[in-house]
User: Fold this.
Amino acid sequence: MAIADIGAYTHLNDVEIEALGQEFDAIRRDIEESLGARDAAYIRRTIRFQRALDVAARLLIACSRSRAGWVAGTAALAFAKAVENMEIAHNVGHGQWDWMNDPEIHSSTWEWDMVGDSSQWRYSHNYRHHVFSNVVGVDDDLGFGVIRMTRDQPWKPEHLLQPLRNLLLASIFEWGIGLHGIHSERDRLAPDEAKVGQARKAFLAKIARQSVKDYVLFPALSRSRWRRTLAANAAANLLRNYWAYVVIFCGHFPDGAEKFSAEVLENESPGEWYLRQMLGAANFNAGPVLAFASGNLCYQIEHHLFPDLPSNRLAQIAVRVREICDKYDLPYTSSSLAYQYFLVLRTIHKLALPDRFLVATSDDAPETASERKFLPGAVPAAGRHGVLAVLATAFPVRTLKRRR
Assistant:
């Protein structure tokens, strides 16, 4: 089942885990000390690009009379929405740019172009997800409450429908994020019904503003061509939803993104926290364009290790994280976007079935593993340490696949 003892799973002792934590702390210090004008210019340039693309796309949709113009404008609008959602709003909401002390680009003031309320998302995401990442029963993002992503979640007959639930969630992903945020607010504020009511009103107000903007205001500005603009806005939102869903799921649910029991939180050291963040996330291979389009969440491992460090630095950080993984014989889960999504879909469809139809053991399945997968007394090869050194002896083929 889920990992209950990170030290036992990684085959690192307390001294090694503390040293690993200090190495990650050093990465943070180095990046924080080097932040400056170049980084500030990057986020301001990104915001200008996104806003210019948004305006250009809407003008093309409204003014072009050809089908090709409509398709190009809709695609450009979808890309603008994806950039705003992922490279700007998500990262601003994490406080990655708070060090600039710019009130426009600050986690407390930015409101994103989605139906969810940013302040509610910041609690559900920055706290409940990132602090307790992949802890079963604590991290609400583990399947988002509607999809079974680990055998630690008991099977129910309703899970037979999760392939369809998955498709629905992908299509309405912004609504799923919004509802996820308000549910977290309800849990945080209960039993104060007055504050819960205020949170619901804030969520409904955001839905109203977003719906009026996308489906009333901009179509109305197009006058006689309002149907064309309405369809473009709906299509752009749908495409943005699909893209955000793929990126998020590929960073959290492919094979190698491990899950943890609540036991790991007891007296968790800084080094163990870093290990949990690293083991619980997955990357996908990307060049500069794909990285930008994904909000640099192709570096999900690095983002979970340092969620409040600017996204434009994650590629630089990744080099040092890989070196640490090699040094301590730890897995660094990364592959192509298509392959990672294939693994996600395989898990979703497989775990829709009752456990009796599954082949692998509950402690050594591709999507769910624990320290109980190892034989008693299993140790790394002489002169090495870490889980990969053990896996290379016991499961050489699987180890190679995980490190691709």
